[in-house]
Design brief:
4-stranded antiparallel beta sheet, alpha+beta, 3-stranded antiparallel beta sheet, 7 strands
Length: 160
């Protein structure tokens, strides 16, 4: 399994857009072409937000995670981790953790002071392993979490 920037593997844009559309966007009536254009934007950079990482196994995309700007318009938080997705057949094999760590490592290299994410509260324990702390509980069983730059490195052996 290898993790790369989507900018280096941009032929996976449509695949990742399909994942995001089927997992989230279609439930909110967001058209596929909007999702696809958004993913293409994230395939253009390795050094500036927004950008995307893709996990690959034998040259097949099996997961992705994004670094985004101002993801939740309800908060004036700049840098976000989001779009974490792993194909169902590859879940529970550590791929999500490796994608998160790649994003955290890169955020630190870019000098990000705080990284936020929004997730279902039932998934918050995964992010807690990386030092994210819940700071807002939202009405739809989701929460907003944050990790400060001094802690952007993975610190728990329990996740391995």
């Amino acid at each position: 399994m290898e993790i790369s920037f989507l900018a280096d593997q941009n032929y996976f844009c449509k695949t990742i857009a399909e994942w995001y559309y089927n997992e989230w966007a279609k439930h909110y009536n967001v058209p596929f072409n909007v999702v696809f254009e958004d993913v293409k934007i994230k395939s253009k950079s390795k050094t500036k937000f927004p950008l995307c990482f893709v996990a690959m196994d034998q040259n097949n995309a099996i997961g992705a995670v994004e670094l985004k700007l101002y993801e939740n318009k309800g908060y004036n938080y700049k840098h976000w981790l989001g779009g974490l997705f792993v194909l169902p057949d590859h879940r529970r094999s550590g791929i999500a953790k490796k994608l998160i760590q790649a994003a955290l490592d890169h955020s630190q290299k870019l000098g990000v002071e705080a990284l936020y994410l929004q997730c279902k509260t039932e998934h918050s324990s995964l992010y807690s392993l990386f030092g994210f702390t819940s700071i807002h509980l939202l009405s739809d069983n989701t929460c907003v979490m944050v990790k400060a730059s001094a802690c952007l490195l993975y610190t728990s052996d329990a996740a391995d």
